[in-house]
Design a protein that fits this description.
The structure is a homodimer.
Chain A (H helix, E strand, L loop, with lengths): L3 H13 L1 H14 L2 H12 L2 E2 H7 L4 H13 L3 E6 L2 E6 L3 H13 L2
Antiparallel strand pairs in A: 1-3, 2-3
The structure holds a DNA duplex.
Chain lengths: 108, 108
DNA sequence: TGAACATATGAACAATTGCTCATATTTGAG
DNA sequence: CTCAAATATGAGCAATTGTTCATATGTTCA
């Protein structure tokens, strides 16, 4: 073939950095759910506690808690206790960037 | 509450643009698989046919075909026939941008 | 301390997903 | 036209996922 050289180079890159692409897929998996995306979008506007989030999403407080657990264990959000409430907020601006990036494609 | 006004505004935004965020999640769902990410990354380097892709991924030709079908129906890749082969390539640069964006977070 | 509120957690279940296997379909060579 | 190579497709299956329900944990206030 003509481009067999280029292909083996690409193959090398993919197999060598396999774990990196696995992490990448893992990251996108977090954004791949409607509820989680909405939670993250909301948090780009303001920090919020669980009951506030479950108020405007049409899902149970329990469901919100489960999703927040995923977001927290992925280090995308952090928590702070405020009396009886636990306030969630974004850990950094990466989330904002990723959402904006995807938005550009969706709103083409 | 202090910020109830801000909250209702956020709630409005989320519920009003609900379908938009659904599409966003749908988009990320495509990137949320290791095989698909690797295929897309490979295609950022060069156009390739099915057999070439299934060569460096450790999955069946059938599996690759199934994934490419998803990528094509999502308009992320396009096809071109070259003899017996069908050559796949990215439809535009959005894919590149999205991958780069996620990479930045993964390789922090 | 006890009642009420806010959040977390575990079990269970339906739905989705990505793969393999077997089998079409399409194309080029002879 | 026939055969082999390349790709597509459908059925079936195991694994994962997102939700709900019930319940546990933790905090405030009286």
């Amino acid at each position: 073939m003509d481009n067999s050289l280029a292909l083996t180079r690409i193959k090398e890159t993919i197999t060598r950095n396999g774990e990196l692409f696995d992490s990448l897929a893992q990251l996108y998996k977090i954004f791949a759910d409607s509820s989680r995306v909405k939670i993250l979008v909301a948090l780009t506007q303001s920090e919020m506690c669980v009951s506030e989030i479950s108020e405007f999403l049409s899902i149970t407080q329990s469901a919100v808690s489960h999703q927040l657990r995923i977001l927290k264990s992925s280090n995308l959000v952090k928590t702070r206790r405020d009396g009886k409430n636990i306030v969630y907020s974004l850990t950094d601006n990466h989330v904002r960037t990723i959402i904006d990036c995807g938005m550009e494609h969706v709103t083409e």
